[in-house]
Specification:
Rossmann fold; seven-stranded mixed β-sheet; 16 helices; 3 domains; single chain; alpha/beta
């Protein structure tokens, strides 16, 4: 049978079966049902357990064959010795996508690799896609698909994933850890999907399909190897994509091979392929989430020239250093702009780029706002970095409103650097969030995010033909942790 290519049930299923469902407290077969109920999944849940009865108040089915509805997504949560039969039953029942959460396959030994391939063969024979094995699952989407056993969602403090950014991770524990960190920071991640051993479905394939979803405006990824990227490259021009690829060093590549069976590719080759195709590369989890926050603002950038306005000379200097490190440039302001700024900025400040308004902003209402507005009209400025430190109360509120207005009226990307505790002015932080202004704790992190925005908007980039694309190997087995 032709293999089903549609992976949308991972984030849009309305019928979900949990194979290996149980009421036993702490069991992984209980948690997805708890989460689906807790977060308001609006579809049909089918617990599957040979004993039948009820599980957490829902009628339980003794087998997949008993379920009266078509199942889009099945979660297989049985011991490794029972997985083969469960996959066979799901495929025979016409399930579209199955997530095998059980461990004990390709990540263990050669026999496990053989058993893992058998699962793929069984699934493909009936056109079912297989995610995993050794996978923690997926969450999010409009229907609140909470198809996971991750302990992240056991906490009352973890909010429902919501927003226009999708996160895809080859590693389950790291992926859901990054999701929780992003949600804590206010990054609007609405979908998170992990791929585990990638026996069938890969992270790049999932990301390519997410990029075509109208509810998704950006995709960020953690991977240990990059396989066939043709699909991802084809959609890269339509949605912002950023990738954090582990195993950059020789030792790291060896660790990745041990972890997921990832085959090493020369790091310079990986960077070249990503950059040439307008896919941004992150260096760490913080940077990946910083990029996600900027991508969520849905702003494009027309060039690498940045205008800086700051209340701190030190922050401005650090921002200039960061521009050079990241391959961006300091915008050369026109004489007209400099003259206009000289009429606004105190004589002991600086009216050239970076524009330093000094601490006078605390005494002179509207000073920072006028400088930002004037800077934004200079034709050489492609983006604005606004740095302010240790401001409190209404000062932050005013600045936040001014930055939001510039972003709205000019279309320029605007990022804020706030070196100081958010608790000093929580209302200002909320205003910045509502205005779509990403906030970073240091100039370096703000500029690194802008570099990613430049990468995805580079007009000169050309897609590589599949036949000339450098080989970036696919892992043969892996682990979700």
């Amino acid at each position: 049978m032709t293999n089903n290519l549609d992976l949308r049930p991972l984030w849009a299923a309305q019928t979900i079966a949990v194979v290996g469902a149980t009421e036993r407290v702490g069991a992984i077969g209980r948690l997805p049902i708890e989460y689906l109920t807790k977060f308001g999944f609006d579809g049909f849940i089918a617990p599957v357990n040979p004993k039948g009865g009820t599980i957490l108040g829902l009628p339980a089915f003794q087998s997949m064959a008993e379920i009266p509805q078509h199942i889009e997504l099945a979660l297989i949560m049985v011991p490794a010795s029972s997985v083969r039969e469960a996959v066979k039953d799901c495929a025979a029942a016409g399930v579209e996508v199955a997530i095998v959460m059980s461990s004990g396959f390709g990540e263990v030994d050669p026999d496990g690799q053989i058993a893992q391939q058998e699962l793929v063969d069984i699934a493909r024979a009936d056109g079912m896609r297989l995610v995993g094995p050794n996978c923690i699952g997926s969450v999010g989407g409009a229907h609140r698909v909470m198809a996971t056993f991750s302990p992240v969602f056991s906490s009352e403090s973890t909010p429902l994933p919501a927003g226009n950014v999708a996160l895809v991770s080859q590693s389950g524990a790291l992926g859901f850890g990054a999701l929780s960190l992003g949600l804590e920071r206010g990054v609007p991640i609405g979908i998170a999907i992990t791929t585990g051993n990638e026996a069938d479905v890969t992270a790049t394939e999932v990301a390519a399909q997410l990029a075509q979803d109208p509810e998704v405006d950006a995709v960020v990824m953690y991977v240990e190897s990059l396989g066939n990227m043709d699909q991802l490259i084809r959609v890269a021009g339509s949605k912002p994509i950023a990738i954090l690829k582990a195993g950059r060093s020789v030792a790291g590549a060896a660790a990745a091979a041990s972890h997921t069976g990832a085959l090493a590719s020369p790091d310079k080759v990986v960077s070249a392929v990503l950059t040439q195709n307008g896919i941004a590369r992150a260096n760490n989890i913080d940077e990946l989430l910083d990029i996600a926050a900027l991508f969520a603002s849905e702003k494009k950038i027309s060039g690498p020239a940045v205008g800086i306005v700051t209340t701190s000379g030190g922050s401005g200097i650090l921002a200039v250093d960061a521009l050079e490190s990241e391959g961006l440039t300091l915008a050369e302001l026109s004489a007209e702009t400099v003259t206009a700024l000289e009429e606004i900025v105190p004589s002991y400040g600086n009216a050239t780029n970076p524009v330093d308004v000094t601490a006078a902003v605390m005494a002179e209402s509207g000073l920072f706002e006028r400088c930002v507005n004037r800077l934004s009209t200079d034709p050489s400025v492609n983006a604005i970095v606004a740095c302010f430190a240790v401001l409190v109360g209404k000062d932050v509120d005013r600045i936040a409103q001014a930055l939001g207005a510039v972003r709205e009226n000019t279309g320029l990307p605007v990022v804020a650097v706030r070196t100081g505790a958010a608790a000093l002015a929580p209302e200002g932080a909320q205003v910045l969030k509502e205005a779509g202004i990403p906030v970073y704790p240091t100039p370096e992190r703000a500029v690194a995010a802008l570099r990613a925005l430049v990468t995805i908007n580079t007009p000169e980039r050309k897609n590589l033909a599949p036949s000339t694309q450098p080989g970036i190997p696919v892992p043969q087995n892996g682990a979700s942790e």
